[in-house]
Structures are given as structure tokens and as C-alpha cells.
Design a protein that fits this description.
The structure is a single chain. By secondary structure, this protein is α/β, with parallel strands linked by helices. It has 3 domains: 1-79, no CATH class; 81-215, P-loop containing nucleotide triphosphate hydrolases (Rossmann fold, 3-Layer(aba) Sandwich); 219-299, Helicase, Ruva Protein, domain 3 (Orthogonal Bundle), CATH 1.10.8. It is 47% helix and 14% strand. The chain is built from 11 helices and 10 strands. Strands 5-6-7-4-8 form a 5-stranded parallel β-sheet. A 3-stranded antiparallel β-sheet has the order 1-2-3, with no helix packed on it. Strands 9-10 form a two-stranded parallel ribbon. Helix 1 packs antiparallel against helix 2 and helix 8 packs across helix 10. The protein is globular, with a radius of gyration of 24 Å. The termini are far apart. This is AAA family ATPase. Residues 80-218 form the AAA+ ATPase domain. Belongs to the CbxX/CfxQ family.
Length: 307
């Protein structure tokens, strides 16, 4: 049997089957990806700088959809393992993307429930023998039909061979091997620490077919995030405020300050600026419409002192 796919002018993918065996029912296999791809683009439309991640998600969905169509035709199909590793510094969108994936996979029919369970070491690791496996299995059961997200996953391996964290890892791995196609595990953390974590268990990395790197944002991307934040809340930055923010971010990126948290830092700055603006306007008793939407350089503050 020969199988092929061609694309017509309308962007429609056509499956071409030749010499179809008797057990395969003859059906037209026209698949329109445009609607689903648009849905993926819309789900991540507010995210900056994750084009490669969006492409990977489209590839995952394409594989899923083709498998479903093969089942309809009575052809052999293969389950797709969707467990993932997210590597990136703070504020690069790991948790937000994982949460959005849960809903998207439900909307696309990949997951039956689409809920999002976030767990950390304390949720998985017990204090005495047998408790860890029980706690970990309970979290997995709760996450069935959705996504289990474990940030700073390397903390499970910090205690050494005798630490109960290793038991949590073994329990997670065992469930991944059971082959459930209605459960996705995402482990996340800093790039270097995640690399060391994978090295503690040689067989661990191979169980995650998708390893996605969340790069630090550059200056223009951070400014785009800031503008999107204020615009979505019906504010705008004055030119002076924009320049003040840009200069600050440029300096932070230049020195590669460790406690700078990418988009999270920008979000905190803009939320503080909105509070500072409100405080300034109330003091001045100035409630003109133009002033209510304007964030000035005075409002842009970078310390953490409460307003």
C-alpha cells in the first residue's frame, strides 16, 4: 500500500491511499487544519517570543489528528506520548504556557478534562517510608485527564539516594510507562538545574519526547510585554515613561542580574506604576479622562517599597 499527502490551494490536506487493503473502509480523508491552527494561534496570541513552542504544539496536534483519521479508516495508529520538560529562567512563561496548554488540549480533544494541577516537592514527598508513593499516586490520579505541572522538579533529587524524593521520581516514571494517553506530566525549572536533574537518572530524559526551552526575553520583547499590559488595561505610557522603562531594562539585561525575572519583573513594575498613578491622581484630585489613562515617568518606580 502506498500512502501520500498533498496540499491543495485552499490549504487543505488530502490523504491519498492506493491499493487499500480489504479491511480498510474507503472514505474521503480531507483534513482541514486551518481552523485548528488558528485556534492554537489565538490561544497564544498574547504570548511574546514563543513561535517555536507554538510550532511544536501544531506538530503535536497534527500527529493526533492524523492518528484519529487513521483510526476512522481502520488503519494502524500509534498513541502519542506528550510528557514535556520546560527549561527556562524565572518569568519566561513556563507555568502560564502549561496552564494554557491544558485548556487548549481539552478544546482540541486531546485531554478529557483539561484541568491543570500544579505541584511541588512538598505535595509529593512524604516524611516516612511508603507515604511518598501514596502522595504521588494521589496527585497523579487527581491530574488524570489533564496536566500535572511540577516546577523546580530538580528539588526531588536534591536529597541523594536515601531521600524520599527519589521514590517520588520512580513513582512518576512508573506511571509514565503505563502508557496512559489521558495524562500529561510537565517538569519545569532553571536550565542548568534541569540538566543536572536529568543526569541523576539516565533513563529520565528519554521519557520526555518534548523538551522546550524558554529563552530570556530581549529588550524589545520586554517592552512589547509592557505595552500589551497597559493597553489591555486601557492605559498608555508617555514617551518619557517609555524611555525610563527602556533604560532600566537595558541596564538589567546588560549586567545579566540574577534576580531579574523577565516578564514577571516587567509585570510587577507596571502593576506598581498603575498604583502609583492612582495615588498621584487622588492626591491631585485630577480625574480628567486623559489623565486616567496616562502612565508618566513619575509613576515608573523600580524599588519594592509599598505605595
Amino acid at each position: 500500500m502506498e500512502t501520500g499527502m498533498t496540499a491543495n490551494r485552499n490549504g487543505r490536506i488530502n490523504i491519498i491511499l492506493q491499493d487499500i487493503p480489504p479491511h480498510v473502509e474507503r472514505r474521503k480523508g480531507n483534513l482541514n487544519y486551518n481552523k485548528q491552527f488558528k485556534q492554537i494561534d489565538e490561544a497564544f496570541s498574547q504570548f511574546v517570543g514563543i513561535q517555536q513552542i507554538k510550532t511544536t504544539i501544531k506538530q503535536i496536534y497534527s500527529y493526533y489528528l492524523i492518528n484519529e483519521k487513521r483510526k476512522e479508516l481502520g488503519m494502524a495508529s500509534n498513541a502519542q506520548v506528550l510528557h514535556m520538560l520546560f527549561r527556562g529562567n524565572p518569568g519566561t512563561g513556563k507555568t502560564t504556557v502549561a496552564r494554557r496548554l491544558a485548556k487548549l488540549y481539552f478544546d482540541l480533544g486531546i485531554l478529557s478534562k483539561g484541568h491543570f494541577i500544579e505541584a511541588e516537592r512538598a505535595d509529593l514527598v512524604g516524611e516516612y517510608i511508603g507515604q511518598t508513593a501514596q502522595k504521588t499516586r494521589a496527585i497523579i490520579e487527581k491530574a488524570m485527564g489533564g496536566i500535572l505541572f511540577i516546577d523546580e522538579a530538580y528539588s526531588l533529587a536534591r536529597g541523594g539516594e536515601k531521600d524520599f524524593g527519589k521514590e517520588a521520581i520512580d513513582t512518576l516514571v512508573k506511571h509514565m510507562e503505563d502508557g496512559s494517553d489521558d495524562f500529561i506530566l510537565i517538569l519545569a525549572g532553571y536550565p542548568y538545574e534541569m540538566h543536572r536533574f536529568l543526569a541523576t537518572n539516565p533513563g529520565l530524559e528519554s521519557r520526555f519526547p518534548f523538551i522546550l526551552d524558554f529563552s530570556d526575553y530581549n529588550l524589545e520583547e520586554l517592552m512589547e510585554i509592557a505595552h500589551h499590559m497597559v493597553k489591555s488595561r486601557e492605559y498608555r505610557l508617555t514617551k518619557e515613561a517609555e524611555n525610563k522603562l527602556r533604560n532600566y531594562l537595558y541596564q538589567k539585561l546588560a549586567v545579566k542580574e540574577r534576580n531579574f525575572s523577565n516578564a514577571r519583573s516587567v509585570r510587577n513594575i507596571m502593576e506598581r506604576a498603575i498604583r502609583m498613578q492612582a495615588y498621584r491622581l487622588v492626591q491631585a484630585e485630577n480625574y480628567e479622562a486623559e489623565r486616567l489613562i496616562e502612565i508618566t515617568a513619575t509613576d515608573i518606580q523600580f524599588d519594592t517599597t509599598p505605595v
